[in-house]
Automatic annotation (TrEMBL), chain A:
Stretches for region Disordered: 1-57
Stated family: Belongs to the Rieske iron-sulfur protein family.
All copies of domain Rieske, residue ranges: 267-358
Entry's localization field: Cell membrane
Cofactor needs: [2Fe-2S] cluster
Name the record gives this protein: Cytochrome bc1 complex Rieske iron-sulfur subunit
Segment forming the signal sequence: none
One Pfam family linked to the record: QcrA_N
Function: Iron-sulfur subunit of the cytochrome bc1 complex, an essential component of the respiratory electron transport chain required for ATP synthesis. The bc1 complex catalyzes the oxidation of menaquinol and the reduction of cytochrome c in the respiratory chain. The bc1 complex operates through a Q-cycle mechanism that couples electron transfer to generation of the proton gradient that drives ATP synthesis.
UniProtKB/TrEMBL annotation, chain B:
InterPro entries listed in its UniProt record: bc1_cytC-su, Cyt_c-like_dom, Cyt_c-like_dom_sf, Cytochrome_c_Oxidase_Subunit
Membrane topology, from the record: Multi-pass membrane protein
Keywords: Cell membrane, Electron transport, Heme, Iron, Membrane, Metal-binding, Repeat, Respiratory chain, Translocase, Transmembrane, Transmembrane helix, Transport
Name of the molecule in the record: Cytochrome bc1 complex cytochrome c subunit
Every Cytochrome c domain range: 49-137, 153-231
Biological source species: Actinomadura alba
Superkingdom per UniProt: Bacteria
UniProtKB/TrEMBL annotation, chain C:
Protein name: Cytochrome bc1 complex cytochrome b subunit
Organism for this UniProt entry: Actinomadura alba
TM stretches of this protein: 39-65, 109-130, 142-162, 208-231, 264-286, 331-352, 372-392, 404-427
Keyword field contains Transmembrane helix: yes
Any matching Pfam family: Cytochrom_B_N_2
The keyword Membrane is annotated on this UniProt entry: yes
Catalytic activity: a quinol + 2 Fe(III)-[cytochrome c](out) = a quinone + 2 Fe(II)-[cytochrome c](out) + 2 H(+)(out)
Gene3D superfamilies in UniProt: Cytochrome Bc1 Complex, Chain C (1.20.810.10)
Residue ranges occupied by any Cytochrome b/b6 N-terminal region profile domain in the UniProt entry: 13-239
EC code(s) of this entry: 7.1.1.8
InterPro entries: Cyt_b/b6_N, Cytb/b6-like_sf, Di-haem_cyt_TM
Region (Disordered): 523-559
Biased composition regions of type Basic and acidic residues, renumbered to the chain: 531-545
Coiled-coil zones: none
Amino acid sequence: MTDNNEIEGSQEPKATGGTDGGEGRAPKRVIGTPPPAGERQLIASDEGPPADRPGVEFDERSARKAERVVATFFLLAFLGSLAFIVYFIGFSGRDGGMHGIHRARESNYALGSAMTVAFLGIAMGVTVWVRRVMTTQPLVQQRSELATPPEEKQGFTDSFLQGAEETGLTKRPLLRRTLLLAVAPLGLAPLLLLRDLGPLPEKRLRHTFWGEAAKAAQRSGKKGVRLLVDGTETPLKASDFNSPGGIITVIPEGVEKTHEPLNEIAKAAVLLINIPADKFKPVKGRENWHINGIVAYSKICTHVGCPAALYEQTTHHILCPCHQSTFDATNGAKVLFGPAARPLPQLPISVDDEGYLVATADFPEPIGPSFWERG
Amino acid sequence: MKRFTAWRRRPWAGYAVVLVALATTGVVYAGFSPKADTAEASNSAAAAQDMANGKQLFNQNCSSCHGLNAQGTKDEKGRQIAPSLIGVGAASVDFQVSTGRMPAMNPGAQMPRKKPVEVFRNPKNVADVAAYVQSLGGGPTIPAPEQVDPEKGDVALGGKLFRTNCAQCHNFAGSGGALTGGKYAPPLDESTPTQIYEAMLTGPYAMPLFNDTTLTPEAKRAIIAYVVQTREEPNPGGNGLGRIGPVAEGIAGWTVGMGLLVLAAMWITARKPKKQHD
Amino acid sequence: MSDVQAPKAVDAPLTFLDDRLGSSTFLKRNMKKAFPDHWSFMLGEIALFSFVILLLTGTFLTLWFKPSMLEVVYDGSYTKLNGVKMSEAYSSTLHITFDVRGGLLMRQIHHWAAILFMAAIMAHMLRVFFTGAYRKPRELNWLIGIGLFTLGMLEGLFGYSLPDDLLSGTGLRILQGVAQSIPVVGTYLYLFLFGGEFPGESIIPRLFTIHVLLIPGIMLALIVAHLMIMWHQKHTQMPTKGRTNQNVVGYPFYPLYMAKQGAYFLYIFGVLALLATFAQINPIWLFGPYDPSAISAGSQPDFYMGALEGALRLMPNWETNVLGHTLSWNVMIPALVPLGIIFTGAALFPFIERWATGDQRSHHINDRPRNAPVRTATGVAVVTFYGLLWLAGGNDVIAERFHVSLFATTWFFRFAVLLGPFLAFMITKRICLGLQRSDAATMAHGYESGVIKMMPSGEFIEVHLEAPEEQAAVILSKEEGKSLPAARDDNGIPAPGSRNPLGHLRLRLNRFWNVDSIPIEAGHGNGHGNGHGDGEHAAVEDGERATAIGSGSGTGDRS
């Protein structure tokens, strides 16, 4: 693959003493009475002290000792692997396999510990082996110049130009231009082929299921679409949701029966809040969008779309737990803090003949994050 | 055990204790004396006694802030020091006192959970003071043990409701989370089922409330079942790292993972040991 | 060399290959390749081997995982979720966790390996940056590295999104919000990506293919290229005695380095198994299935996306409406600018440095960070910037654990990310120069031996000893920066190339790079430093005086 002009360096150690590791390490300070300075070798000889030469001078005794250490590690690793196999075959399959959280836990501890011992055992064994048994010496190799010598480079340039000349491309413009023309559309093909990845935006982002459902309800003579408690799917009466400081997540009635309920809920989720009537300040023009302080805001944050669901009943703040955009529930969900730029859209709600909370229309504006065509 | 603790906090738990004691006494002294009569006879007398005890406890422990008539107090500038307790109900008192949040030394926006003060470690005293406050103006009552029994809750529904209504503050596993202004949603690992119910019902501090007509008692029991089961289930994958999500995982990856591997790299690449001298 | 015969088991296959490929020449030339040793050279291996482990465990997981968003009702061994509606992706992940033996272990190893992979790339890139190992001829590998890091972020994000749990769905929701807010094409991009509206039924199958095929394929190709280039160029080495720009001192690949590599691979696998056994990661069963109206407190991404998350949190709520079109600066700026600056800056840095310093040589000896103060300080400034954004991504956890106000943390980080990097730059540069001074002092007067000597006069002095040769070699590895010719020479004639603004900028950068440098000379004034910058010289002399007063002269004690 490479290394064509590499000149192999000598494999004999040339200068060895202290070649590895010790980058700029200052000699240790001696605290207390030092040995006479003369005993310390202050200036290293060119060859370095022989004891410093790595990997060479192990005597047989220490090597044998190391071998035993290595063997112990390898044995340990073997036992680890063995334990893995024994547990897997002998225990994990009892009662017809691993089912549930307790057995998953047991199995994770057993298999994982065995695996850890097996891997780390070999790894540590090899480390001791490399450090205390292997006699391989460090090498000094010469680096070769990476750049090609100029004459060779020139040779390549010449061949390349000659080749280009031979094809005739350089002196036949018609050939060249029509070839380009023929190739260019091929580059566009992928773009076309990706067209059917998804639908065009159209007005999709501007509406939610609330509008559709409210209109349908009104056509059948009702006041609007009922609000269902998300999770229990029960309609909610205004008189039931009567405690100031209360919240609940609601979805439009019938959303579960739509073609793609999750997509609809992802746009239509609403946080219903009961704000003490004396604290609530309806936005101008929305005076009849609430019932005695019961107010409905889109749960989809106007920043990047997390559910802004965290409500503090003491401060009346709605907080998005993702990026901490904070909205004032008493005042049209105006932004108080954080990265969101716009208030949470408000859903106009009312009460139908039976006392149930209903939405009378869609949100007045697109919900969720901003987009280019939003306006 | 937990069910028993919850049971002990019921307002009639005290009565039951009296009843059992009397029954035992009766058995010992009179052989087959009619239990029902004894109990009934003692019931009204005991109730009056309990109410007196509750009032006394209130005056000693609560009235300095909440006022002798539980009407609440204000400082000279008209700011509220302590809210009125009329109409907060026994559930609220039981929650605040049994979690040790009240009586508070320094009232603030949020009280941490702590061990209840000496006198309120006796569940009967908590029940008495709760009954007394209930008598002042009604309000949500303490749920029956059956209502908070985690064994009876629909845990699948509870999970859905918890994630939609609770997890935004208390986190997916009830480990707690941050609110604004230094407030926080506390972890749910010590809350008893009764306390969880009462918190949903009364909305202590910044917490919004979920009354019984919005989230039915059954839905609440489902949530309790989910919370209790989640905190009791082991972490199959090892240490749960506080069950707070990826932040703890990132820290563990860098410190433990990278730390160990750098140590291994240092060992592997360290200068070879010198010749072993004898 | 000799006529020793290899055992038949070795000889036969080698001969087979050699007869057909002529491979022995290649093997002979390469098997003894020297690899310099240093612990920090292993950081890249962590990434490499984590990638291998990711491929292995990932393949295991695909055998059971169903990348489908079809709704199913769970009925399995994790009883708490029985009867809950969820996607097949989520339910098959539960199946891997609770029903497949070793499935949880493999899932956890996979996720921990992803964490280590990204952590190791970061650490490796920092090592390369601070030692100047990206310099000529290694710029290409530096660029490949940046590409791998970017791909790794995407790969992690997509993999993280696959189980379709509440946390990963929240991540996708944010991805959708960010995509939607891109000017002009945002809504198209969003709908094309999700195959309709969020969440739809296409995103997980699509991300699955990208996660298991497309990105790993590209990464594999880049990693192979990275290693081939490294092999061909030979590794850099730390500046120690006996090492020059023309040689490589190290251990031969075969057998020693190979054994070390094998051991290190097993260390990595072992540590990952250890983590996967004792530290639970991504407990999707606790998160629950994705539900667009639900959210958890502390919804964070994995750490390598933390800086992006932090930027999103810190950004003020700027948005403008121009001619009926909405521009969400509050999303666009944090999504593009911070990481854009860091990645583009990192990619251009080798070229800017080469241009500003006028240094066209090849470098095979690593710089000590202190000897390139501007580079080191720039690096620390970027680390500070990134680190603060990263911390800001967890500001709710910080607020909760330390009981401080959430908004206060946001305000703190808003200022800190802007001011912190400058402060870090200045402090780091000063520290580097301080270390250079200490090096210069060591060369001039020796090191403090710790030996206290009583003079005949009764005065105590500390004996200074000449630095040992090994240490001296390290200290003397400092290269003086080359000053470009001044903009105007003594006669006021502009130098060539400095007339245009670009030329001026280059001179400025060059001066900035070189102005604070402490000349380090071997022994006593017999060095080669030409002492440009008189102010610095004075500073060194100040230092010298201080040394002399504090500890006496060491010259007399040289043995």
